[in-house]
């Protein structure tokens, strides 16, 4: 039942106030960490006594941080490509296929979303340890792919579900082959869903820390893992700068998703 704000009267301001408090509760930690990354104190003091870009300069001149940033980006890009490709194939099978156990298969594909990440991380660690994939880029990609693939399947399946299949039938009547129909009709029609799936897959890999800790090695660490390990040793403002960079890229990606949804609805 939808609420009628015109009839709520004074209660409307109570609800608005609660909404503002919730937003502040969610955003204030992010604002604090961003402010600390520009503080000129070597300690994490809020509010900062002064402002500087020294910590960002130190971040981008330290090879350890640069390598971790490059590793995160490399793994996230590879996971994105694989997640969208496999998610598209799986979504086509789940939305168009008619076979026994389709619902069970769909539920199984979404299982990583409901499992505790630490349980999944321990299971993958034990499995990859036998295969010799721990501490390798392949291990990172496969591990992140497990948790990113459900997001692609959900997003692409929703796009395929709202797609008018009669367009494909019309293209086939005009003489197009099944492959041409998929490449020239289906994929362009669901391009927004594919792009949204790519963004979600990238963010899942980019921000993942629990599974990455199990996959990491002394010579191969992603940015979230390096932030975590550095945080356990020293509270340097460089951590705040790296965290702000991590949050900034995540926010930009989420804004892109919002713009995509807005463009799709208009």
Automatic annotation (TrEMBL):
Stored Gene3D superfamilies: MetI-like
In this chain the ABC transmembrane type-1 domain maps to: 69-257
What residue ranges carry the coiled-coil annotation?
A: none
Keywords tagged on the record: Cell inner membrane, Cell membrane, Membrane, Transmembrane, Transmembrane helix, Transport
Q: Which InterPro entries match?
A: MetI-like, MetI-like_sf
Annotated membrane topology is: Multi-pass membrane protein
Q: Where are the transmembrane segments?
A: 12-38, 75-95, 107-128, 140-160, 192-215, 235-260
Query: Can you say where in the cell this protein is located?
Result: Cell inner membrane; Cell membrane
Give the highest taxon in the source lineage: Bacteria
Q: Which family does it belong to?
A: Belongs to the binding-protein-dependent transport system permease family.
PANTHER family assigned to the protein according to its UniProt record, in alphabetical order? INNER MEMBRANE ABC TRANSPORTER PERMEASE PROTEIN YDCV (PTHR43357:SF4)
Q: What is this protein called?
A: ABC transporter permease
The species is: Undibacterium arcticum
């Amino acid at each position: 039942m939808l609420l009628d704000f015109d009839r709520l009267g004074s209660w409307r301001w109570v609800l608005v106030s609660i909404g503002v408090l919730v937003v502040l509760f969610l955003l204030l930690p992010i604002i604090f960490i961003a402010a600390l990354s520009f503080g000129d104190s070597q300690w994490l003091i809020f509010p900062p006594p002064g402002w500087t870009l020294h910590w960002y300069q130190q971040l981008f001149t330290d090879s350890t941080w640069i390598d971790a940033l490059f590793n995160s980006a490399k793994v996230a890009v590879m996971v994105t490509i694989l997640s969208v490709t496999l998610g598209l194939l799986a979504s086509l099978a789940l939305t168009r296929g008619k076979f026994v156990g389709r619902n069970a298969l769909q539920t199984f594909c979404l299982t990583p979303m409901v499992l505790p990440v630490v349980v999944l991380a321990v299971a993958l660690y034990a499995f990859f340890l036998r295969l010799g994939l721990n501490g390798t880029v392949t291990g990172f990609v496969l591990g992140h792919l497990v948790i990113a693939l459900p997001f692609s399947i959900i997003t692409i399946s929703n796009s395929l579900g709202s797609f008018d299949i009669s367009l494909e039938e019309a293209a086939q009547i005009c003489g197009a082959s099944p492959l041409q129909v998929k490449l020239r009709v289906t994929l362009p029609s669901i391009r927004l869903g594919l792009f949204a799936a790519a963004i979600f897959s990238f963010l899942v890999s980019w921000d993942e820390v629990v599974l990455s800790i199990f996959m990491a090695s002394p010579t191969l660490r992603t940015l979230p893992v390096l932030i975590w390990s550095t945080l356990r040793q020293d509270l340097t403002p460089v951590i705040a700068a790296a965290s702000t960079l991590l949050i900034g890229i995540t926010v930009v990606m989420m804004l892109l998703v919002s713009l995509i949804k807005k463009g799709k609805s208009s």
